[in-house]
Design brief:
Blueprint (H helix, E strand, L loop, with lengths): L2 E7 L8 E4 L4 E5 L7 H10 L29 E9 L11 E9 L4 E5 L2 E3 L1 H7 L12 E2 L3 H7 L2 H12 L2 H334 L6 H8 L8 E4 L4 E2 L5 H8 L6 E3 L2 H13 L7 E3 L10 H6 L5 E4 H4 L1 E2 L4 H8 L2 E4 L2 H10 L5 E4 L4 E2 L5 E2 L10 H108 L10 H152 L4 H6 L6 H18 L6 H63 L3 E6 L10 E6 L13 H18 L4 E5 L7 H14 L4 E5 L3 H5 L3 E9 L2 E8 L6
Parallel strand pairs: 3-22, 3-23, 8-21, 11-12, 15-16, 21-22
Antiparallel strand pairs: 1-2, 1-4, 4-5, 5-6, 6-7, 9-11, 10-14, 13-15, 16-17, 17-18, 19-20, 23-24
Length: 1178
């Protein structure tokens, strides 16, 4: 078996996944200091199960996880896998390779794996137990391992030898066996306690069983008596049922007879009802006909009245039409007269219109002649006026141009003045902007400097805050641990207090007495154990000395004790022992007890070593006045023997020497499971609770102070961050403002240049305007004398005539319009008269037609009224006939109703007789149902007692019901005398017996198991002793030989501190180097110490070669000669064992088969370079 490879990921400085292949022979790992070489040996030690992180050069578990570097973040976990060659199947696994993996996460989770399957650390330790790679093995020698081996205690050093001797697995199995043995002893104590408890319970249970037996006999008799009474009741019920069922059948026959009569009456009744219905139907039909005839008669009367009214209206309308005809005739005569006068007026309108139209045409011709003459005159005048106007227009244009030039010059002058003023203002603004910009640049530099200071201060304060937060987190963890511990203490204390309050381990009788203590007033003082104070030193001794008397009840008097005993007996609550204070008086000490109390090893008389109130002192003396407490069992045996075994002596650890010489001892219950031990434990827990509370409060206070510190720092950091943020924003604002000011300054300079250009341009334009003004003034002077044009008189005269003609034409037009309107009015009046004539004609025709229609309507109404008279007479005759028939039919119906009433009376009497029979039947049926219910009740009663009627008949007792009732009273009295009875008492008693038998079998099984374990442990001890002795002998010889080779002389040997029990003692190393006296190992030089450990390692390898051996810079303290000697010696053994050596020494490297180089190309991260020497050295 050998080491094939090692894979590291996230382990210490190996951040990336790194696989190291190991070849046969000697591998030397080299590299500069701090590059991570030793981390490889730490990884091997860790993956093989090292639990102490200090042995891995760390302070806490997280230290083995890569913690990050300048360029890398910390890893969340570390994982190491070690692969062993198992082709020879030295390990009990079927695979040719065995991988062992260990992983740890920052959250604390961790796991182990063998061949990628989860396992326990114990599984790995057992797998490697006999391979030389177990715990304490020297197969991995770290930088601090040399001092550990040499300065270790002898018993610690022995563990290394055990691992080499191959007995680690035996040691593990022995420890497991011892644990099982201890568990077996605990189980046996628990079972024996249960047996003792069962023994206490068996006595009352036996009494209960006997009582239950008597109870069951009485209940059996009572059951038979109850069954007999039920049978008698059932017989009586049967007779009554038979009687009433016969009566019920007779009534049923009578009921049938009456039902037949009722059926006959019902048929007759139905026939009469049918006839009655026919009479009613006929009456209803006749009544309906009469009503219809009457309704018809009334309708005809109403129609006649309507026709009569219509005839009256027709006569009235005839008169109205005659009057209308007279009005129509007068209107026609008036319209004819109006048409004649309208024709004459219309003709005069036509003549006027024609005359005015001729006048208008003549005046328009004259107007046209005047307009032509006016046009010729105005054309001649316009030609004269045109020349004059051209000159005036030119003059006006020149005057306007002159005014415009003057205005332009004035405007240019104002603009030039404004430009001068603006230029001066801009120059002033430029100077102010330059000053403001300089101040802005200065403020910006100051802000940038302050921002840098704040950034540096913020980093420092943030780092300080992180440190304080880490400290607070540590305090919070500490507080959590203390709270958990305090909670565990309180929980444990509460459990023990509850057990004490519930009188755990006391008998049920004592518990019942204490539960009902108030029934007995102040007579009960309490259990003895509660009345005594036991110093912690004497807890076990007092527990054994008093024994079961701890639970005995202390009372005032024997009378009170008697009352309580009676109470227990009455309620079957068990038995208890009482100590009445009036009767428990101590006898005087003999001289022997007082004399023996002064012996060496004797603490004193038990009653004097325990404390109590004065009232209980006599009781305590009477119980423990003759009991001594000794320190050890040897002291107790010695004193007991000296006084001829007449004294009772108990030791501090609870062993007992009885008067007479018998001894009781062995292991005891756990302290907390004993009465005084529980009290002692409660006091201890109360003290721990108080101290824990104080510590927790201090921790909380410290945490609160730390919290204030952190909060203060956090506020400071926040304020600095806010100030930094504000300053950063302000600086950005200053920069933006500066850039804006620079841009504004540039714009202002540009604007000033533009103003300068504008000033020059305006001065040039003013000069040009002056020249132009002079030229225009000269042109205006040339046009100063323009001749005046006179008014056109001819055109004025012609215009006047034309105006007069227009007025004349207008007057003609007005008259012509009036004539045209009169003519239009005449046309309209003519049309209205023609239309009125047509309407009169239509009205005449309609009137004639209305007259004819009215005469026709009058004739029709007279005919219809004659017909209605005839119909009314017929309807009246029909109504009279219907009334006579209806009266006759009503008389027949009354006669029939009398017959129907008589039939109803007969039917009623028959119905009453039938109802009486039915009531009698119902009454009989109720009694039958009642007796049947009683019968069912009695049968149910039998069923509840798990009996059939046949079974009840079989156990029926002789005698009457009265005899049985008297017997039942006697049985009830006997049952009452028994008091409360547990019906299952016999079964409970048998269950307790079976349980006791089961526990006895358990004790027997546990005894066998204990004996078997003791035998196995003895066998393991024998094997371990023999194997260890043989290994120690050979290693001792080899160690002496190799030490002489290493030091070229001198003496060295190994000795056992306890040769009789080598596995219990230790191993000492005795060295005397050449030319020196024997000296302690601690005074040896570093090189001598290293050579000693190397010699010890090679001695181990000579006896049992390990698959591989890791040595970390063990040659650091050796000179070159010793390095070469050490390297040659390793080279001699490398065929049996694979050596991995971490070294800086060139001599060591010369003997290497493979070189593994470790470097840190990236700061804080280790990497690997492998060189096989055979590839370069022939």
């Amino acid at each position: 078996m050998k080491l094939l490879r090692l894979t590291l990921q996230g382990f210490k400085s190996f951040a990336d996944k790194t696989t190291i292949e190991f070849a046969d022979g000697m591998t030397v790992i080299v590299g500069p200091n701090g590059c991570g070489k030793s981390n490889i040996s730490d990884a091997v030690r860790w993956v093989l199960g090292e639990q102490n992180v200090r042995n891995l050069r760390g302070q806490k578990a997280e230290d083995i996880i890569f913690s990050g570097s300048e360029s890398r973040q910390a890893k969340n976990g570390a994982e190491v896998t070690l692969v062993l060659d198992n082709s020879a199947h030295e390990l009990p696994l079927d695979t040719t390779e065995v991988s062992i993996t260990r992983r740890l996460l920052r959250n604390g989770d961790s796991d182990f794996k063998i061949n990628k399957r989860s396992c326990r650390l114990k599984d790995i330790q057992e797998l490697l137990a006999n391979t030389g790679l177990g715990r304490g093995s020297l197969a991995i020698i770290g930088q601090n391992r040399v001092d550990q081996v040499l300065t270790a205690r002898p018993d610690e050093r022995r563990l290394i030898f055990e691992d080499v001797a191959g007995i680690s697995l035996y040691r593990m199995r022995k420890n497991e066996g011892l644990r099982k043995l201890e568990k077996t002893a605990e189980n046996m104590d628990r079972v024996q306690d249960m047996v003792a408890l069962l023994d206490e319970q068996l006595v009352p249970l036996k009494e209960g069983a006997e009582k239950a037996k008597v109870y069951k006999e009485l209940m059996k008799k009572k059951r038979a008596l109850s069954a007999s009474m039920t049978v008698l009741k059932l017989t009586s019920i049967g007779r009554m049922l038979s009687r009433y069922e016969t009566e019920y059948r007779n009534l049923e026959e009578e009921d049938v007879k009456w039902e037949t009569a009722l059926s006959s009456f019902a048929a007759e009744r139905e026939k009469l009802e049918k006839q009655a219905l026919d009479f009613q139907e006929n009456l209803r039909n006749l009544g309906q006909k009469t009503a219809e005839a009457q309704q018809k008669m009334e309708e005809l009367r109403g129609d006649f009245r309507v026709k009569e009214e219509s005839l009256h209206h027709g006569e009235e309308k005839k008169g109205e039409l005659a009057a209308a005809e007279e009005d129509q005739k007068e209107a026609e005569e008036e319209l004819a007269e109006e048409i004649r006068s309208g024709e004459e007026e219309y003709q005069s309108f036509v003549n006027d219109f024609r005359q005015w139209n001729e006048k208008k045409e003549k005046a328009e011709e004259e107007k046209k002649t005047l307009e032509e003459a006016l046009a010729i005159s105005e054309a001649a005048y316009a030609e004269k006026l045109k020349v004059n106007r051209q000159k005036i227009s030119e003059k006006q244009r020149l005057e306007q141009e002159l005014s415009h030039v003057e205005e332009e010059m004035r405007r240019l002058g104002e603009e030039r003045a404004e430009a001068l003023s603006s230029l001066a203002e801009k120059k002033k603004q430029l100077e102010e902007l330059e000053k403001e910009l300089a101040a802005q640049v200065k403020e910006e530099k100051e802000s940038a400097l302050r921002l840098q200071e704040l950034e540096e201060q913020g980093k420092k304060d943030s780092l300080l805050l992180k440190q304080e937060e880490d400290r607070r987190f540590a305090l919070m963890n500490e507080k959590g641990k203390r709270e958990s511990a305090l909670s565990a203490i309180r929980s444990r204390k509460n459990y023990l207090e509850r057990a004490e309050k519930e009188y755990a381990d006391f008998s049920m009788a004592v518990k019942n007495i204490m539960a009902h203590r108030e029934l007995f007033g102040n007579a009960i003082h309490g259990p003895l154990g509660e009345l005594i104070e036991v110093p912690e030193k004497y807890t076990a001794a007092a527990e054994v000395a008093l024994g079961s008397r701890i639970s005995c009840i202390v009372t005032d008097t024997t009378e009170a004790a008697g009352k309580i005993i009676g109470w227990l007996k009455e309620r079957r609550l068990g038995r208890a022992t009482f100590f009445p204070l009036e009767s428990m008086k101590p006898s005087s000490y003999g001289g022997q007890e007082r004399e023996a109390a002064g012996e060496r090893g004797i603490c004193g008389i038990a009653s004097e070593l325990l404390t109590c109130d004065g009232i209980y002192r006599d009781l305590l003396t009477s119980l423990l006045g003759r009991t001594l407490i000794a320190e050890t069992l040897d002291d107790a045996r010695r004193v007991a023997k000296k006084y001829r075994y007449r004294l009772r002596i108990v030791t501090l650890d609870g062993q007992l020497v009885n008067a007479g010489g018998s001894m009781t001892g062995g292991s005891m219950k756990k302290t907390e499971n004993t009465f005084f031990g529980r009290k002692q434990e409660i006091r201890r827990l109360e003290k721990e609770e108080t101290e824990g509370g104080k510590t927790l409060e201090a921790c909380k206070k410290q945490l609160e102070e730390q919290g204030h510190t952190c909060d203060s720092l956090a506020r400071k950091v926040m304020e600095e961050r806010e100030e930094w943020q504000s300053l950063k924003v302000s600086l950005a604002s200053l920069i933006a403002r500066r850039e804006g000011m620079e841009k504004t300054l540039a714009d202002q300079k540009k604007a000033a240049g533009e103003e300068e250009e504008l000033k020059g341009k305006r001065e040039k334009e003013l000069a040009e305007g002056g020249e132009r003004k002079v030229r225009i003034s000269e042109d205006i002077e040339k046009l100063a004398d323009i001749p005046e044009v006179l008014e056109d008189e001819e055109s004025g005269r012609l215009k006047k005539k034309l105006d007069e003609k227009n007025e004349e034409i207008l007057a003609i037009h007005v008259s012509l319009t009036k004539a045209r309107e009169s003519l239009s009015f005449g046309d309209r009046m003519k049309e209205d008269r023609e239309r009125a004539l047509k309407e009169q004609k239509a009205d005449r025709e309609k009137l004639e037609e209305d007259k004819k229609e009215n005469e026709r309507l009058l004739r029709t109404l007279q005919v219809e009224m004659e017909k209605l008279k005839e119909d009314f007479q017929k309807a009246e005759a029909l109504w009279q006939d219907c009334r006579q028939n209806q009266s006759r039919l009503q008389d027949d119906s009354d006669t029939f109703a009398m017959e129907q009433k008589k039939l109803e009376e007969s039917w009623r009497k028959t119905q009453e007789a039938s109802s009486k029979v039915k009531r009698d039947m119902a009454e009989r049926q109720g009694r039958i149902d009642n007796f049947k219910a009683q019968e069912e009740e009695e049968m149910r009663h039998l069923a509840e007692n798990h009996m059939t009627r046949a079974e009840a008949e079989a156990i029926r007792l002789p005698g009457s019901m009265q005899d049985m009732r008297r017997e039942e009273e006697k049985l009830s009295g006997k049952l009452s005398e028994l008091g409360s009875v547990n019906p299952n008492g016999e079964e409970d008693y048998q269950k307790q017996l079976d349980k006791r038998k089961f526990y006895e079998e358990q004790i027997e099984d546990l005894t066998k198991a204990r004996n078997g374990l003791e035998t196995v442990i003895r066998d393991i001890d024998k094997t371990m002793t023999e194997q260890f002795g043989e290994a120690f002998k050979q290693i001792n010889q080899e160690f002496g030989r190799i030490m002489q080779l290493m030091f070229q002389g001198g003496k060295a040997r190994l000795e056992l501190t306890d040769e009789a029990h080598p596995l219990e003692g230790g191993v000492e190393m005795y060295l005397q180097l050449p030319g020196k006296k024997r000296q302690p190992l601690t005074l040896m030089s570093g090189g001598e110490r290293a050579l000693t450990v190397i010699a010890l390692l090679i001695s181990f390898m000579a006896y049992r070669p390990a698959p591989f051996c890791f040595v970390d810079e063990i040659d650091a303290a050796l000179d070159d000669a010793n390095v070469e000697r050490y390297s040659r010696m390793i080279a001699d053994y490398k065929k049996k064992t694979q050596f991995i050596v971490i070294s800086h020494r060139k001599k060591t490297m010369e003997f290497a088969d493979t070189l593994q180089g470790v470097t840190m190309a990236e700061k804080g991260v280790s990497s690997l370079i492998t060189v096989k020497m055979k590839d370069y050295v022939e």
